[in-house]
Automatic annotation (TrEMBL):
It comes from the Bacteria. It comes from Pararhizobium mangrovi. The lineage of its organism: Bacteria, Pseudomonadati, Pseudomonadota, Alphaproteobacteria, Hyphomicrobiales. This is HK97 family phage prohead protease. One of its GO terms (molecular function) is peptidase activity. The keyword Cytoplasm does not apply.
Length: 177
């Protein structure tokens, strides 16, 4: 099985020394390398989240820039009706400080994830991921695989589950290809 990587239309919120948002969203179409259109089915990450495997949070899929991991509890993942939620404690490392500074300014490109497809449905040039083995999520500093990525950096306290925020909100849209 091949490990794949995908970037998705998500939101990232900087909250003190935490980043939170969605690493993947269900039912969102993405054109992958002009070869096929892909969506993620609700529940695709359930087996990974129920298992005992260690999922890492990286910068640009680089295993040399680890931000957090599930094994240590510094990365928390959960599925809801929208997608794969994440919350990570940003380390006081150069990579952590850089990511946090860029997220606060609204300069982060989006989120991505590395996975192995376990169950998929292919129909012509369409692919639906039904179950994946999740290896890592990544903060992507430039361009994730999916167009239309939205990234938010917030300067005040997080007020509710990815809904209510106040004060300085910076929003950028990934430029079209």
């Amino acid at each position: 099985m091949t490990t794949e990587r995908r970037g998705l239309p998500i939101e990232i919120h900087a909250k003190g020394r935490k980043l939170e948002g969605y690493a993947a969203t269900f039912g969102t179409e993405a054109r992958i390398a002009d070869r096929f259109t892909e969506t993620i089915a609700a529940g695709a990450f359930a087996a990974s989240l129920a298992g005992r495997g260690d999922v890492l949070a990286l910068v640009d899929h680089d295993p040399g820039r680890v931000l957090a991991r599930t094994r240590s509890g510094s990365l928390r993942l959960a599925e809801d009706t929208r997608g794969l939620q994440f919350e990570l404690d940003v380390p006081d490392t150069q990579a952590g400080r850089d990511v946090l500074a860029l997220a606060e300014r609204g300069d982060v490109g989006g989120m991505s994830f590395g996975f192995t497809a376990l169950d998929e449905n292919r129909d012509g040039d369409r692919r639906e991921l039904r179950a994946v083995q999740l290896h890592e999520i990544s903060v992507v500093l430039a361009w994730p695989a999916y167009d239309g990525t939205i990234v938010n950096a917030r300067s005040r306290q997080f007020l509710g589950p990815f809904a209510a925020y106040a004060d300085r909100a910076l929003r950028i849209m990934e430029l079209g290809r």
